[in-house]
Amino acid sequence: MALPITYNIRNVFVRWRATVATIAGIALVVAVYMIMQTMAEGLEKSSQNTGDPRNIMIVRKGSTAESSSQVTRAQLKEFNYLPQIARDAKGQPLLSADVVVLVSLPRRDGSGEANVLVRGVSPVGMDLRPQVSLVEGRWFTPGKREVVVSRRLSPRFANFEIGGKFRTGGKELTVVGILDGSSSAFDSEVWMDADESRSIFDRENYSSVLVRAKDDAAGKEFVKRIESDKRLPLLALSEVEYYAAQTKTAMPIKFLGNFLAMAMSVGAIFAAMNTMYASVGSRTREIGTLRVLGYRRRSILISFLLEGAFLSLVGGVIGCLLALPLPLLGYSIGTLNFETWGETVFQFRMTPMLAVKGLAFSVIVGVLGSLLPSIRAARLPVIAALKSL
Amino acid sequence: MAENIVTIRNLSKIYRQGEINVTALDNISLDIRAGEFLTLMGPSGSGKSTLLHIIAGIDRPTSGECHVQGIDVAKLNESQLADWRNQNVGFVFQTFNLIPVLTAYENVELPLLLTRLNSKQRRHQVNTALELVGLAERKTHLPRQLSGGQEQRVAIARALVTSPSLVVADEPTGNLDSQSAQDVLGILQTLSKSAGKTVIMVTHDPKAAAFGSRTIHLEKGELSN
Fold first, then answer.
1. Residue spans of alpha helices (H) in chain A
2. Sequence-separated (6 or more) residues with CB below 8 Å from residue A370
3. Measured distance CA(A151)–CA(A162) in Å, rounded
4. What residue in B sits closest to A286 (Cα-Cα)?
5. In whole angstroms, what is the distance from residue A68 CA to residue A124 CA?
6. B95 and A CB contact within 8 Å
7. Which residue among B90, B138, B213, B225 is least crowded, i.e. fewest CB within 10 A of its CB?
8. Distance (Å, rounded) from C-alpha A151 to C-alpha A156?
9. In what order do the strands lie in the sheet containing B63-68?
């Protein structure tokens, strides 16, 4: 049987100065790790929130993003007659041809310019994306140089408020409304009329086409139909799949988070090791006594490892709590999307799984840090331990 | 006549200090009877603590045999020895050696956590041991809240709680005032006389040795009488 855990918990707080320093170090490492992970989680979630499983996206074969894709008007006409596409009450196909253009606009804080994705969208396109809603002002009028900007982009770019005007493509556009994309990728877009967009940006073709399939089977058939048609150098895939591929943007953030956490955890491991060595050093006679009472080397080893794990778990909990305000307050941040090359705005996001990861990370740091001191404690010769001061 | 609980034959212990061999025990043979209160006396470095440690299974002889209740302690491996100590020996230290973060009750309970007793059985035994040393009402106190004499009585309760047949005490009164020392020695004597425990005590103090039923002297690692 192992030593009672209360023995370790109370010992942790006996040397409270060293304990506080170690806990603070581990908390800091876990906080950095968690903040980076909540960023990556938020970014991934924004892509995951975007797709509708009933919708199918069509882009040019080989293009990784809508902004680098082209669908010609002739190709578009082909789709109009495909029976797999759902139709509205008037018999019109539920199909939206979008024009996606990357424009560079000045930031509101004057720190230069950044790329923004402008989506030219048809009224059907809005119906196909029910997660997008107008939260302020009104929708743009087709044929007018009007735009609706996302609520999250609004505080980040100059003149992105109702009535604000900005120039792009040599033309002046007016902001008439604010949209909310329900934490989807549309939170990083500016929407306007598709045909007006083609005119302003001088685009002959569309960037992508979004269609609503009649049902799941029809959707699969539609994808097969597009893929097998040699005349159409296009790629059809479900909208969910398309946006799932966009989560690759989160990879550098995840990598950076892991790298920073690893680098900092080396310091935290040494801090934990130092504390645990001091703890073993000051309890040498105690360890000898426990051995005399019949506790085996293994019990002593486990006991000290548990103590290190407990110490770091406290740090882990504090680290998680430190990282919590950003997701809790709905704080959003922008980064360059490596797929679209536009600014992606997303919210920090904490999940129970992430918290578990953070706590597990802290425990690993603690166990690694206390491994050598614990082995030393377990190997102490009983007589020598009893004679220590 | 009671049978022997400890049988020692030709026991030697040699420590190596750098290039020099130091003989702590030199070819000792000794029998200790069950229920005896044996006191070991001798000057510092005479080997009395070493002998006590070997009998208690916390040190190993260089040569010779040390049978306790028929078991050759020197032949047990580390884990077997740990279990054997837990079941058969109660140890009382000069410096009490209580765990500072645990209460008197928890300190006494420590050896029982290694047994198969359930919490109710453990509680009963801990309370009985604390009552025996007159500290039942101090069981929630931490060691720092107790006097030296009380700490040593808690240590005796811890030594007794597993009902070992052998209690070894290494200068148990060395850090106590005379009244507390009398109390502690009285308890050890009662254990031997009334409870039939075998008590082996190392001491420098002839007055303390007088509490024992037999005293043997060691000098330079040998029995001197």
1. 5-14, 16-48, 73-79, 123-127, 194-200, 216-228, 239-245, 250-282, 284-293, 297-323, 325-328, 352-379, 382-387
2. A272, A273, A276, A304, A305, A307, A308, A309, A311
3. 11
4. B99
5. 22
6. yes
7. B225
8. 10
9. B20-33, B4-17, B63-68, B71-72
pLDDT higher than threshold 70 for residue B23: yes
* Shortest Cα distance, chain B CAs vs residue A336, angstroms: 54
Yes or no: say if B9 and B29 are a contact pair by the CB < 8 Å rule: yes
Q: Report yes or no: A283 and A18 within 8 Å, Cβ to Cβ.
A: no
DSSP secondary structure, B96-129, as one string: ----TTS-HHHHHHGGGGGSS--HHHHHHHHHHH
Domain ranges of chain B: 34-58+77-218
Which CATH number does the domain B34-58+77-218 belong to among 3.40.50.11220, 2.60.15.10, 3.40.50.300, 3.40.630.30? 3.40.50.300
Contact across the interface for B59 and A296, Cβ inside 8 Å: no
Count the helix, strand and coil residues of chain B and give each as a percent rounded to the nearest 5: 40, 30, 35
Is the pLDDT score of B169 beyond 80?
yes
Answer whether B35's CB lies under 8 Å from B2's CB. Answer: yes
Task: Check residues A239 and B161 and name the one with the higher pLDDT.
Answer: B161
- CA distances from residue A325 to A40, A316, A322, A331, A387 in whole angstroms, order as listed: 16, 16, 7, 8, 51
Quick one: B179 exposed, middle or buried, by C-beta within 10 A (0-12, 13-18, 19+)?
exposed
Are A386 and B102 within 8 A, CB to CB? no
Residues of chain A above pLDDT 70, percent: 94
Nearest by CB to A295, from B58, B87, B114: name it. B114
Q: Diameter of chain A by CA atoms? A: 95
Give the closest-approach CA distance of A382 to chain B in angstroms.
7
| Cβ proximity of A187 and A152 under 8 Å | yes
Strand residue runs (E) in chain B: 4-17, 20-33, 37-41, 63-68, 71-72, 89-92, 166-170, 198-202, 214-219, 222-223
pLDDT score for A283: 86
A184-208 pLDDT, tens digit each? 888 889 999 998 998 888 888 899 9
- Whole-number pLDDT of residue B225: 61
B90 vs A: CB within 8 A: no
Of the residues B62, B79, B99, the best mutation for testing chain A's interface (the one with the most A CB atoms within 10 Å of its CB) is B99
Amino acid at position A302, single letter: I
DSSP-derived letter for residue A186 is G
* Closest residue on chain A to B142 (Cα): A10
* Res. B6 pLDDT band, cuts 50 70 90: very high
Interface size, chain A vs chain B, as Cβ–Cβ contacts under 8 Å: 64
Query: What is the predicted pLDDT for the residue at B28?
Result: 94
Residues in chain A: 389
- Select the more confidently predicted residue: B90 or A90: B90
pLDDT higher than threshold 60 for residue A176: yes
Two tokens, residue B94: 């000069």
Do A47 and A246 meet the contact criterion of CB atoms below 8 Å apart? yes
- Please report where in the chains the tokens 């086409």 appear, as a residue: A209
State the Cα–Cα distance between residues B109 and B125, nearest whole angstrom. Answer: 8
pLDDT computed for residue A248 by the predictor:
67
A310-348: pLDDT as tens digits = 888 999 999 999 988 888 877 777 666 666 666 777 778
Separation between Cα atoms, residue A81 and residue B151, nearest integer Å: 94
Mean of pLDDT values over B150-169: 94
Q: What pLDDT is attached to residue A233?
A: 86
